[in-house]
Sequence to fold (443 residues):
Amino acid sequence: MTATSGTAAENGRTAWRNWAGNVRATPARTVTPASVGELQEAVRRAAAEGLRIKAVGTGHSFTAAAATDGVLVRPQALTGILSVDRGAGTVTVAAGTALKDLNRALAAQGLSLTNMGDIMEQTVSGATSTGTHGTGRDSASIAAQIRALELVTADGRLMVCSEKENPEVFAAARLGIGALGIVTSITFAVEPLFFLTAREEPMPFDRVTAEFDQHVAENEHFEFYWFPHTGNCNTKRNNRSQGPAAPPGAVSGWIEDELLSNGLFQAVNSLGRAVPAAIPSIARIASRALSARTYTDIPYKVFTSPRRVRFVEMEYALPRERAVGALRELKAMVDGSDLRISFPVEVRTAPADDIPLSTASGRDTAYIAVHMYRGTPYQAYFTAAERIFTAHGGRPHWGKVHTRDAEYLAAAYPRFGEFTALRDRLDPERLFGNDYLRRVLGD
Fold:
């Protein structure tokens, strides 16, 4: 996922679209504040004019969480590391900083986040506000690694939030979907740079699902991909090691990460979109193309991978003990249908955390993500998958396609009312609202 959201002229105004191209908006104006003070003034002006205001990162969300017909804030001028506190083990970074830039800057200083997702194109505020996560037995999402943050509230004030200052706002705003204010800086917990050894290995679907609990227990970070229309999976286990770095060879790394995972994958998805009947045969060939490999490197180089093939995604967080059953139902549904799915299904885990709207709030979690190649009709597949996930008590990822509303989500999140009450206090006029937030949080 290297491209960012795009803009284009539309009716004399600048239209915005997300990375996948499935969400578009035409704001009244777009602003790029160069300072926190300019952002505060933009918020005050929007309120005075009766316009709603939303911040957008790189557009990697598949929902309309950041879309607005009012003022669109692009925080790309608010970037960079603001301070490092080695004694406290924290780094404070401006909200518009891309995760890739943060990771590289931290590595240069001998520091690292503990865990992260598999892409790093997003801004830190966009990633945390929608609940971006990787996989981990003990280490949780990026938002769970936040130790403090600052945000501009609906009255234009800059609020400092931590466990000691405005603790109730801090608890919720770590993952706020943009509903509580516009985040200007985030303080993350960091640790000395370490090495991870990754072991990637093909494994049959029946084996990986039968041994799922064992793999999660035995590895710091475990995930796998199932290739629909086959009984084949590819597993990945990341664990800390003493090093030294032993990255994939230049040729073998290019073959796996660029040729197979991007170049060839782009070609086969294009073929599958043109000739859907060919997808099962393509899937069987593709699922056997990846081979076992082991490599060691610093964290972000192991956690993340280039993702250049564009797609649309739905992901649900399930109680961990329900994941295997749901996945088997998903496979049976695909096998018994006329659906043709060219993208693998991704399975990851996270420990319980204490963030009110985190998808892992209060329970050990497993994530199941389904994807469709951009431009391919996805509604039938996603609808059938969502029916399975919700039957198992699933919570939809805030930044990925889903159809749930506030009534469903209030029952899925024990602390939902805590969040909405805080929103009523901080933004009673819904300055930071939009249609998506109205659906998922209510009025």
